[in-house]
Amino acid sequence: MLRHKLSSRALVIYFLIGIGIIGIVTFIYANYLIQRIKKETETTSRLFAEFARGPGIDEERLVEIFYKEVIEKIDFPVVLTDAEGRPYSAKNVKEKDLNKVIKNLDRLQSPIPMVIRHGADSVLVGYVHYGLSPFTRSLQILPFVETVFLIAFLFLGFWGYLVYRKSEEEKIWNSLAKETAHQLATPLSSLSGWLEAIKGSIDPEVYKGIEEDAVRMKEVLEKFSRIGLPPRLTMKEPLDCIRKAVDYIKRRAHRKIKFSEDYQPLPRIKFDDILLGWAIENIIKNGLDAIGSEPGEISIKTFTRDGAIIQIADTGKGIKKEKKIFQPGYTTKKYGWGLGLALTKRIIEDYHQGKLILKSTSAKGTTFQIYIPEVKNENFMD
Q1: Which of 46, 54, 108 has its CA nearest to residue 77?
Q2: Triad 252, 256, 262: Cα angle to 5°
Q3: How many CB atoms lie within 10 A of CB 46?
Q4: Are 356 and 348 in contact (CB under 8 A)?
Q5: With bands split at pLDDT 50, 70 and 90, how would you rate the model's confidence at 336?
Q6: What's the pLDDT band for 1 if we cut at 50, 70, 90?
Q7: Confidence band (pLDDT; 50, 70, 90) for 330?
Q8: How far apart, in whole angstroms, are the C-alpha atoms of residue 29 and residue 22?
Q9: Which of 347, 336, 7 is nearest to 168 (CA)?
Q10: pLDDT of residue 353
């Protein structure tokens, strides 16, 4: 996945390339605008020079220059109408219906009246209806284009930063989990040796309980050591894995807890026995913590809906800050690490391509659903 591959170096390269592209495009377009403005300034200066020559200027020559330098170089739509508004000439207009063109032009710019004055008298001879040139339109939309481009660039950069930060956080948690597994491996091996040494010299039931917990500790070490590694997915029906996880917690819950189990057949799915069992245990443990020492009930139900659904409900006190429960480090327990639900979500969604859903929560209890899609390709290889 991208978030596991994105590095600080990739983020720096992205910003450098982005800034470089923005700089180059801005330089090229600014240079284009400067050249256009220089041409228009040159034309205006040439006309001013002809007028500045004084009364000796040839009127026909002046009209000729004005026609060549201004009229012929018009690149915006223009329609001329008489005093009654009837069009008789047009330039840079593709639409055949000039009346329609006039309405569109007048909606954007007010028409310019053409008036001939004779002393104190004046006569309206027509109107000039005009639009904007491509150059002017480009100047109008340039700020919007630049803003959209800049926002998109900053958004992608911010998104990349968040992904990078999340990736770094995951690296820390992965390293912590692996180091925990490594540190506990030695004393656990020693405990296994001591168990062999005292075998037969203590009560068999006590020995069996200690041995079972030692085996369970090995499974916990296996779980922590596999964080950050690809899951070992197998394709099969998951009910045995679910029952095993529920039974383990059930034997360790206090006597006031009632377990209600309703297992309906589930389809074949791809899952990792240890990781899926761990996810189920984490949710049930959270339910037990929410119930506390009071009487309560844990309900486990399975059913099919486009895949396997495992529903786990408790009668605890509910969750106050629903949006934060899947964030690493968030916990309501005094000595909790806030990793249980964060790891569970990652196990279900990243490793099993499923969904962990907080179905409901209130003062009367909380319900979670685990969804894992059904495998329809029977040629899947373990």
Answers
A1: 108
A2: 75
A3: 11
A4: yes
A5: very low
A6: very low
A7: low
A8: 11
A9: 7
A10: 92
| Angle made by CA atoms 28, 34, 37, in degrees to the nearest 5 | 145
- pLDDT greater than 90 at residue 296: yes
C-alpha span between 372 and 305 (Å, rounded): 10
Task: List the structure tokens of 208.
Answer: 């069996």
Q: Tokens 């220089």 map to which residue?
A: 38
Instruction: Compute the half-sphere exposure of residue 214: CA atoms within 13 Å on the CB side of its CA.
Output: 17
Dmax (CA) for the chain in angstroms is 131
The sign of the torsion formed by the CA atoms of 142, 145, 150, 153 equals: negative
Torsion of CA 163, 168, 174, 177, to 10 degrees: -130
Q: Does residue 80 come out as left (phi exceeding 0), alpha (psi in the -120 to 50 range) or beta?
A: beta
Task: Return the structure tokens found at 109.
Answer: 């710019």
Amino acid in the structure at residue 102:
I
With residue 314 as reference, give the H or E element that holds it: strand 307-314
C-alpha–C-alpha distance, residues 382 and 377, integer Å: 12
Give the mean pLDDT of 288-313.
94
Identity of residue 251: R
What is the Cα–Cα distance from 104 to 88, expressed in whole angstroms? 17
For residue 131, give the 3-state DSSP assignment. coil
Give the model's pLDDT for residue 339. Answer: 62
Q: 170-204 in b/e burial notation, b at 16+ Cβ within 10 A?
A: beebeeebbeebeebeeeeeebeeeeeeeeeeeee
Dist CA 367 CA 286 (whole Å)? 11
More confident: 378 or 308? 308
Rg of the chain in Å (alpha carbons): 39
- pLDDT classification of 268: cutoffs 50, 70, 90: very high
Residue 220 neighbours by CB under 8 Å, 6+ apart: none
Report the predicted TM-score, pTM, of the whole model to 2 decimal places: 0.53
